[in-house]
Amino acid sequence: MFPKRRMRRLRKTEKIRDIVKETTVNKNDLIYPVFIDENIKNRVEISSMPGQFRLPLHEVRDEVLEIVSLGIPAVILFGIPKHKDDIGSEAYNQNGIIQRAVEEIKDEVGKELVVATDVCLCEYTSHGHCGIVEGGEVLNDPTLDLLAKEALSHAEAGADIVAPSDMMDGRVKAIRETLEDGGYQDTIIMSYSAKYASSFYWPFREAAESTPSFGDRKSYQMDPANINEALQEVYLDLQEGADIVIVKPALSYLDIITRVKERFKVPTAAYNVSGEYAMVKAVSQLDNVDEKAIVFEILTSIKRAGADIIVTYHAKDVAKWLSQSPTAKAVSVSR
Ligand code: PBG
Predict the structure, then answer these.
(1) Domains (ranges, CATH) in the chain?
(2) Which residue has a Cα nearest atom 2 of ligand 1?
(3) Chunked in runs of 10, what are the mean pLDDT values of the chain (335 residues)?
(4) Main-chain dihedrals φ then ψ at residue 168, nearest 5 degrees
(5) Cα–Cα distance, 188 to 186 (Å, whole number)
(6) Ligand 1 site, CB within 6 A
(7) Which of 120, 162, 167 has most ligand 1 atoms within 8 Å of CB, for mutation?
């Protein structure tokens, strides 16, 4: 009891605060998203995401060299193909944009960088939905084969991790079986298990040109109101063979991250999505805003909630800030 017990004793100096700190953000926790576009000759900035670009294939080597030199351990790749059709056939073309990018990256940096690929059809379909469409419906079972083919083609190109983000039922099982049959038993599946039908994806859809041409994604992505459903999704994906599970988005879903981590005790990733990044960038244009402090506070909250891994567009900035001052986190978060 006061005055013997004084909580402020442990807040007195920066060094004291450092030794009692419960959560830190490290470069090792980060996965950086990279967009590769078959339609462009030079990099194009994504208008709602200052500092983020779509890259042509020939710029990918330099990009990954920079990422490795910053000390970021992993990337997740998204492809924008030249040709889109009803069934997203470029998604599983062995010569497709992602397949070629993975080969180039692995050739350049090998084991220095973990390469994950987003496995979904929405960037490759003319209608922008994540599965095969018939009569205005997104069909589940016929989509599974295509996703499995896509994942296998990424593994064949050398991907370390495949990350299905479509939210079809049974896709992890289909992918795991296809990888096993193809001899890729060590390919990691990082499943977007609890992926919500969120309004925070708009900059991504602009970047990936994947806005659905009709309707929305509510018949396959989750209702933001639900918790139990997220736990069921994670349970099923683990049963089907997922190694890492993702909760997405991150900030409005910190409670979900906590519950998933506490319940399942498996490697848990949080996707700090495009709209969350865009908000930070938009507010950072204003006077007297300390972007670095905001970013560290956000990432700290995601880790504190229980995430082991954070997929974030802030990864390069964070890596630079941490290199300038290893205690950047302490200084900025406690301000
Ligand atoms: C593909 C996919 C999306 C994101 C990751 N994979 C968009 C969507 O579901 O519409 C969103 C990532 C972000 O907003 O940063 N299905």
Answers:
(1) 21-330 (3.20.20.70)
(2) 165
(3) 98 97 97 98 96 98 98 98 97 98 97 98 96 96 98 98 98 98 98 98 92 95 98 98 98 98 98 98 96 98 98 98 72 45
(4) -75, 150
(5) 6
(6) 118, 120, 122, 130, 165, 201, 204-205, 210, 273-274
(7) 120
